[in-house]
Structure formats: structure tokens, C-alpha cells
Amino acid sequence: MSDWYLESANHTCGNFAADVNEIEAAGLHTLKSKFAAAPRLAESAVQMECELDSVREIFNDEGKHTASMILGRVKAWHIHNDVKETSPQKHSRAPPPIDIEKLRPISRAGGNIYVAAGSLFDIPRPNVS
What we know:
Strand 3 (46-59) and strand 4 form a beta hairpin. By secondary structure, the protein is mainly beta. The chain has 3 helices and 6 strands; from the N terminus they run H-H-E-E-E-E-H-E-E. It is globular.
């Protein structure tokens, strides 16, 4: 997610009743997807429509199910023009050409802790052939 809608996105994590639409309660908006049944979040600068590839159940040492890892195949990318790179590739990464500095990404580190991207740098991969 990007920093410009962090507060609204965090609001969706509230302990809402089952009949409450958290997206509406947070003042966020949706867009119709082209391939997926679920709608996309309009405020998100980068959106991926995926189809389910597989689900891997994760168990702790006592055999208790603790998480599920879901893998999907991206069927469509939606990238807002404001975060697209306008110059030739500044960083050695594959498309889509997203300008990370314009995206201003935020990630959840765990619990109530979030991390903002700091300084960016590019480290070329060694040529070992």
C-alpha cells in the first residue's frame, strides 16, 4: 500500500460486525475487476488481478494449523499513471515500470507496526558466466 491511504486502510482492520463493509466504513472505494470476481481498491496505485494457483497449509511443531500461504497467478496489472516511470529504467527490475519513489510504499511489519521505504539504491547483479 502507499502512504497516502494508510489511515483509511488501517481503519479496515477494525473489529467490525460481519454485516459491515469495512471498505465503505473507511471511506475507500472499489473498482470492477476484469478477470477476478473480487473488486479492486481504487485508492491503490498498483492493483493485481489474480487467479488461485494453490494453497499451502502451514502447521507448527505441534501439528496445529497456523497459517495458509496462498499463491496466485497474475492475470492483469492496473497501474495508476502517477506512479509509472516516465524515464528509461532507473532500476534493474522487470516490468511493470513502477517508480518506487512515487509509489511511496508502506508495509506491515507485524502487529501495529508499519514500515515506510527509506532510501533506495540499486545493486547490479554480478556477471558470473
